[in-house]
Structures are given as structure tokens and as C-alpha cells.
Write a structure and sequence with these properties.
The complex is a heterodimer of chains A (about 325) and B (about 260). By secondary structure, chain A is of the alpha/beta class. Chain A folds into 2 domains: about 220 residues, Rossmann fold; about 70 residues, Alpha-Beta Plaits. Chain A is built from 11 helices and 14 strands. In chain A, helix 3 crosses helix 4. Chain A starts with a strand and ends in a 13-residue tail after the last helix. Helix content of chain B is about 75%, strand content about 0%. In chain B, helix 4 runs antiparallel to helix 6, helix 4 runs parallel beside helix 7 and helix 10 packs across helix 11. With about 260 residues, chain B is mainly alpha-helical. Chain B has one domain. The longest helix of chain B is centred in the middle third of the chain and has 29 residues. The relative contact order of chain B is 0.14. Classes of the chains: A alpha/beta (about 325), B mainly alpha (about 260). Chains A and B meet through helix 2, strand 6, helix 3, helix 4 and helix 6 of A and helix 1 and helix 5 of B. Bound molecules: adenosine-5'-triphosphate and magnesium ion. The site of adenosine-5'-triphosphate has 14 residues of chain A, from strand 2 and helix 1.
């Protein structure tokens, strides 16, 4: 089977900004693939190139075996894009927006109307079908926006930060949708800044930073690259953090993962058994713990380990 | 959310070019339905203009308001429809910044369809505005000697010209940042174009140098042609001039607009 997506050395610059600096990706059909990276990493640029909205300056991108530059129309026939910012007509109602898409995709008026109703039901928007989209809440907008990309089920669905700005309930609704879309056989490429989102949804993921893929694999692979497991300590008081770090380093060697929370310490464990030694050392030294746990490293820690810095999610909202 | 998403595994064949244009024109109509202020906006102004000019200047300019409106009304129609063309550029600009054109551009449809669909919707808007102005004119005593056919031909000619002019605002709509700047930029051109014309005042009453300038203004030609058609006077040359000018603008501006539209953002 041809790959859903295959790119080689994809590069794109905007003025002096190197948005993409040689992106190589290979994504199999029928999977959910996560593209993970902080603000400005190049996620949107990558997706826009793959959806034929931008031309790469260098490199090639094949989508389902079609070149995105030379065979743009073939690609458009098979993919759908839900961009980072809502792209439906806010003056029209939810139903009208979906009928518009249906008609443009070649459905009859009647077929487009029926499909619109069906999708509004499936997305929990039936009650708002006759209201102008500008009256929708953020979560409803996101859903109508995704629905607009599913009027005809695409072979590949691009979702650019589908849950940014949504409350936890709306997020899990979108996750549920993504799972169902994938279960129907559509390949989903989603970008996110949320590590837990990629972890939950994507079978494979690529971490992208400064326009380059810095790691690729299953979420398990990526976690393995920072150690088989991770030790999390939560201290009773911040005063004891330095002391705790010193003790952990003495037992485990150079294993402490950087972090900014003054109440906690995280370290890489070669094996879970080492945890006992750490606990013994801490107890002996009367370091008071609020929490002590051993688990898989989170993708946050993976990101730390890969880039040596935290993900920059502070300014993720508020762009027009 | 319990219903299946499927039902449509095979994608339908994308819409043909005419059907895509028709669908996008339907969208433009829906916008008028949902935001009727768009129409209100463009009809109040001409009604105001006509009333003010007819009754304040009518006596001085043409002897009586009733005589003046015979001269003025075809011109006010021209001016109004020309002003409305700016909405084409503003609408496009809004759509681009709302990301709607990204969605359109990622669909497998004939690429100029969104532009032509918007223009088709505008033609509808022009028709409504024209009808309103004519009705008001008839109430105020406007009596076109060319009859219904003459009036209809004049309206069609104005629409042809405005269709051409719209392509210029489409270009501006893609160049500037906000719908408001589309408006201000366009009016920098439109104000002199419409006021330095013979819409309100006969060319013969102007000083010689001004006649030179105003006489070359395309809007003067259009106003002459529409006045002539409405009153059943022979204005074949003016009509031909307007049609030729419109063709030149479309031939020059539409490829530029299309290239800019296809260009990435
Ligand atoms: N049209 C543009 N003009 C100029 N610079 C751009 C443009 N689009 C993107 N960039 C720049 O390219 C870089 C990558 O942008 P991109 O939007 O792909 O990042 P991203 O990973 O999607 O970030 P975010 O999480 O903020 O959406 C950024 O530095 C951005 O400022
Ligand atoms: Mg982005």
C-alpha cells in the first residue's frame, strides 16, 4: 500500500524565518499520526504544504502517491483540512455551511441537505443547526469546522490543533470524534502542543522543533529514549528541593530531568527497582514527601530530553 | 454523538464549474438574508442623495426639482451601484482572513468559482438596489422617456461596468489587511471618480479645464449612456465606449486577480 504521506527535505521560508528546515516524514495509511511541537515549530506550515495551500521551497511531498505541487488537484480530491482557526462562514447557519460544502463537493441539493443533517446529529449540533455560526461557543465552532471537513469522508484528514482553546469536556468530545473518524479508515494527521493529546490519540508521532523533525516513533519509543521509567517526587516543602535533588543524584547518577515546579523532582530510572534506594535515602535524611511515584515518563519529559528545554505553550492562544 | 459518520465512503465527483459558481452565489444570497443591513446600507445613501440634491439644488441647477430628477436619477443609479462594488473587495478580504478561502482552495473545485460566485451574488445586490432607486425615482416624478426597455438596458450596462470595476476591488481586497482598509482605499479612487463626473451637474456648466477632465472620466461616459438609454436618446457611441472600457478592465484585471488568488498566503 502506498504511504499516506511521504516527505523528503521539505523546506519553507518566510522572509528571514526558516519555517521548515528539511522535514522528512513517512506516515502509513489508516493511522492517527501526531505532529507535536511548540509554537512556531512549523506544524501549520507542514500541514498547509500537505493540503496544497503552500508550495515548498525545496523538497518533495507525496500524498497518497500524488505530488502536492504537480498533482495538487488529485490531492485535494482525497484530503480535507481543518485549519488551526475556524474556517466556516460565520454569517451562515451550521446547516447552511455544511450544505455549501456538500454542494461544492458535488452532492445534489437534497443529498447535501441530508448529509448536513446527519453530520449535525453526529456532532451533537442538531439543536444549533439553524443558528448562525457566530452565535456558537468555541467548542461548537470547532465541531462544525471538523464536520465541514467530513461532508465527504476524506482518505486523509488534517487537523491543525483541533483542541487548542477548548475546555476539557469539548476536548474529549473532539478526541472521541478523531477516534471514530480513524476507525472508519481515514488517516488522521493532527498537530498539537499538548503532549497528553498526542499520547492518547496518536499511534505514532513526530516531534518537530524549529522546522525539523527531532524524533519520530511510537509514543512508547519516544518514552524509551528518556529511560524505561521515571520517578516523580512531590515535596512537602519547597525548601527541601535542593537537598532532595542532591540525594537523588547521589543514588541515580546524572538522571535528574529539568523542571520548573519548585515542589517536585523528576528523574530517569534505569529500572524501577532503583526507586527503593532513593526512597531509603530520602527517608534517612528526613526529606518529607507529599507524593512518591514511579511511572512512564510523560511526553513533557520526552520533550525536555530531546530539546533541553520546556515546551513553550504560554502564548498558544490569542492569535487572530 | 451516537450516529455513524460514514454513509459516504466514496467521495462524490466534485461539482462542475457552473454548479460551484451557482452554489457560491447562493451563499452570497444567504449572506444578504442573514445580514440585511448590507442592503440597507447601500440603499439609504442613494435615497438620501436623491432627495437632497433634487430638492436643494434642483431649482438652481435645472429650474425645478421635477426637471432636475430627470437628469439626476440615472446618475444616482450609476453612483450607487459603483459604491456597492466596494463590498466585493470587502467580502473577499473578510473571507480570506476568516480562513474560508483556505477551505475553498483546498477543495477539488474550479479555482475561480469563489470569486465568480461572489460576483454573481453582487449582481443580485445591484439589481435590488437599482429597483429601489427606480421606484423612489418614479414616486418623486422621474419619467423615463425610453420606457421599461430603456431603463432595463441602462441597468444592464451599469452592471456590466460594475462587474468590471469589481475586479479592481478584488485585487485591493487581497492586498490590504482589513475590510476597513479595502473600503478606505477604494474610496480614494471612487470619490473623485464619481464626484468629478457629470452625475450631478451638466458638463456644459463647468469651466473649460474642468470639462476636459470630467469629460474623460469613465463615469461621465457611463452616466451619459445610462441617461440616454433611460430617456430614449441615441447614445450608441457612449454605450460602445463603456462596453469597451469594461472589457479592457476585465481583460487586464481578472488575470492579475486570479494569479493573486491562487498565490499562497
Ligand atoms: N505567512 C507567514 N509569514 C511569515 N512568517 C510565517 C508565516 N507563516 C508562518 N510563519 C513563521 O514560520 C514559523 C513556523 O510557523 P507555523 O505556523 O508553521 O508554526 P506552528 O508550529 O504551527 O506554531 P503554532 O503552534 O503557533 O501554531 C513561525 O516562526 C512563523 O512565525
Ligand atoms: Mg500552527
Amino acid at each position: 500500500m502506498t504511504d499516506a504521506i511521504e516527505t523528503h527535505g521539505l523546506a519553507k521560508r518566510f522572509g528571514d524565518t526558516r519555517a521548515l528546515d528539511g522535514v522528512d516524514l513517512r506516515i502509513r495509511q489508516g493511522s492517527v499520526f501526531g505532529l507535536l511541537g511548540p509554537n512556531g515549530a512549523g506544524k501549520t506550515t507542514t500541514i498547509r504544504i500537505l493540503a496544497t495551500l503552500l508550495r515548498p521551497d525545496a523538497g518533495t511531498a507525496m500524498v497518497l502517491g500524488h505530488d502536492v505541487v504537480r498533482d495538487a488537484r488529485k490531492v485535494r480530491e482525497k484530503v480535507s483540512l481543518t485549519g488551526q482557526y475556524a474556517s466556516v462562514d460565520e454569517d451562515l447557519t451550521g446547516h447552511e455551511n455544511l450544505v455549501l460544502m456538500g454542494r461544492l463537493l458535488g452532492l445534489s441539493w437534497r443529498g447535501a441537505g441530508a448529509r448536513a443533517t446527519e453530520l449535525l446529529e453526529a456532532f451533537g449540533l442538531a439543536d444549533a443547526a439553524g443558528r448562525q455560526v457566530q452565535t456558537y461557543s468555541g467548542g461548537m465552532r470547532r465541531r462544525i469546522d471538523i464536520a465541514a471537513s467530513l461532508v465527504a469522508i476524506p482518505e486523509i484528514l488534517f487537523l491543525d490543533e483541533p483542541t487548542t482553546g477548548l475546555d476539557p469536556r469539548s476536548r474529549s468530545q473532539v478526541w472521541e470524534l478523531v477516534r471514530r473518524i480513524a476507525a472508519e479508515g481515514t488517516t488522521v494527521l493532527l498537530t498539537t502542543q499538548y503532549l497528553d493529546e498526542a499520547d492518547r490519540l496518536a499511534e505514532r508521532l513526530a516531534v518537530i522543533d524549529h522546522g525539523r523533525v527531532i524524533a519520530e516513533g511510537t509514543s512508547r519509543d519516544l518514552k524509551a529514549s528518556v529511560g524505561s521509567s521515571a520517578l516523580h517526587l512531590r515535596l512537602a516543602s519547597a525548601d527541601q528541593r535542593a537537598r532532595a535533588q542532591e540525594l537523588v543524584s547521589r543514588v541515580l547518577g546524572e538522571a535528574i530531568l529539568p523542571g520548573s515546579d519548585p515542589m517536585s523532582v523528576t528523574a530517569r530510572l534505569a529500572s524501577p527497582a532503583q526507586a527503593a534506594a532513593v526512597l531509603a535515602a530520602l527517608t534517612e535524611d528526613r526529606v518529607e514527601l507529599a507524593e512518591f511515584s514511579v511511572g512512564n515518563p510523560s511526553l513533557d519529559e520526552v520533550f525536555f530530553a530531546l530539546t533541553g528545554r520546556a515546551t513553550e505553550t504560554e502564548n498558544s492562544e490569542g492569535k487572530p | 454523538m451516537t450516529h455513524p459518520l460514514v454513509a459516504m465512503r466514496a467521495r462524490p465527483h466534485p461539482a462542475s464549474a457552473p454548479s460551484a459558481v451557482a452554489t457560491l452565489a447562493w451563499r452570497a444570497m444567504l449572506k444578504i438574508k442573514h445580514v440585511p443591513f448590507q442592503l440597507f446600507d447601500v440603499t439609504v445613501m442613494p435615497i438620501m442623495f436623491t432627495l437632497l440634491f433634487t430638492y436643494i439644488f434642483g431649482g438652481a441647477l435645472a429650474g425645478s426639482p421635477r426637471e432636475y430628477i430627470q437628469y439626476l436619477l440615472p446618475g444616482v443609479l450609476v453612483q450607487t451601484i459603483i459604491f456597492i462594488t466596494v463590498y466585493t473587495g470587502m467580502g473577499l478580504n473578510t473571507d480570506i482572513h476568516k480562513g474560508l478561502y483556505d477551505r475553498f482552495r483546498s477543495l477539488p473545485m474550479w479555482q475561480p468559482a469563489p470569486l465568480l460566485g461572489a460576483l454573481a451574488g453582487d449582481l443580485f445586490r445591484y439589481s435590488v438596489a437599482s429597483a429601489l432607486i427606480l421606484i423612489m425615482g418614479l414616486i418623486l416624478g422621474f419619467r423615463p422617456q425610453g420606457g421599461a426597455v430603456g431603463v432595463l438596458l441602462a441597468v444592464v450596462l451599469v452592471m456590466v461596468f460594475c462587474f468590471a470595476l469589481s475586479w479592481c476591488w478584488i485585487i485591493i481586497g487581497m492586498l490590504v489587511r482589513t475590510p476597513e482598509s479595502v473600503m478606505t482605499t477604494s474610496f480614494v479612487f471612487l470619490m473623485p471618480l464619481t464626484f468629478a463626473s457629470n452625475i450631478f451637474v451638466d458638463l456644459k456648466t463647468m469651466p473649460g479645464w474642468l470639462q476636459e477632465v470630467v469629460g474623460r472620466n469613465p463615469v461621465t461616459h457611463l452616466a451619459n449612456a445610462s441617461r440616454g438609454l433611460m430617456h430614449g436618446q441615441p447614445v450608441g457611441a457612449e454605450v460602445a465606449w463603456v462596453l469597451a472600457a469594461s472589457a479592457v478592465v476585465v481583460i487586464a484585471a481578472s488575470p492579475v486577480a486570479m494569479r493573486m488568488y491562487r498565490k499562497e498566503r
